[in-house]
Specification:
Elements lengths: L13 H13 L8 H13 L6 H4 L15 H22 L21 H8 L20 H13 L5 H5 L3 H4 L1 H8 L12 H32 L20
Helix pairs in contact: 1-4, 2-4, 2-6, 2-10, 6-9, 9-10
């Protein structure tokens, strides 16, 4: 794998996606997510809290939340370089102004094809009355693993996501994730199961989340700029407390 720094700015090609999938497959049970779930994790650190670095997110792809024993140094280097390149691709998309968006520059989530048997099992299920977040739709559907990967990053570092919950309509922004992660909305059981619809909203959802944390970061920087160190007091100057003492 080419380690040229300029390559970190290039989107992954088909062969590199296959390479990343092969690395995960070689890890067997050490891997907690598949390629789709890893992409959800990567999207989370690209659009989420600015303090949420890849080093805190990528281990969540593996058992115990720790980096695994790769088959070799080449696998480890390729995993990190390919994951970072995908993160850079998301970051470039998130940084585009609204007027710059076109069909060609929208970054779509990496969705793995599901079997017809799994898809049929999911389609035929109806959530029972009183279904809550402890229940998941059986089978598998497009976007499920992606949403689960993203939500894994959110749940493991929940305090850092506070600005999202505090923002107006912040929790509403997460609706596509909840629908894809669980396969239904516990608050609106009557909603039709249409994963393709929610998958198309994921890029816009990521941009909305990024905007919330971008604004939060700017506010924190402005707060730091407003801080001024207290004036220095000379040995023979009056105490600034107003006591009149030196």
């Amino acid at each position: 794998m080419n380690s040229d720094p300029d390559r970190l700015q290039e989107p992954l090609n088909d062969a590199e996606w296959d390479r990343l999938e092969a690395i995960l497959h070689a890890l067997g049970e050490q891997a907690e997510v598949d390629l789709e779930g890893l992409d959800g994790l990567i999207a989370a650190f690209a659009c989420g809290p600015r303090s949420l670095m890849p080093s805190r997110i990528l281990p969540l792809a593996f058992k115990g939340g720790e980096m695994p024993e790769f088959a070799g140094e080449g696998d480890a280097l390729d995993f990190f370089s390919l994951a970072l390149r995908r993160g850079n691709e998301y970051s470039r998309f998130l940084g585009l102004e609204k007027g710059q968006l076109t069909i060609d520059n929208v970054v779509l989530p990496a969705i793995v094809e599901v079997s017809e048997a799994e898809a049929a099992l999911a389609r035929d299920w109806t959530p029972p009355p009183g279904a809550d977040t402890s229940i998941r739709r059986p089978g598998r559907w497009p976007g499920q693993a992606w949403a689960h990967g993203f939500m894994r990053a959110l749940r493991e570092h929940d305090p850092l996501w506070a600005p999202l919950y505090e923002a107006e309509d912040g929790e509403l922004t997460l609706t596509p994730l909840l629908m894809l992660d669980l396969g239904f909305n516990p608050d609106r059981l009557e909603l039709a199961f249409d994963p393709e619809q929610w998958v198309t909203l994921l890029p816009l959802m990521a941009r909305d989340i990024d905007a919330i944390f971008r604004a939060d970061f700017l506010r924190s920087m402005q707060t730091r700029k407003r801080f001024r160190a207290p004036p220095k007091v000379g040995r023979n100057d009056p105490c600034p407390c107003g006591s009149g003492r030196k």
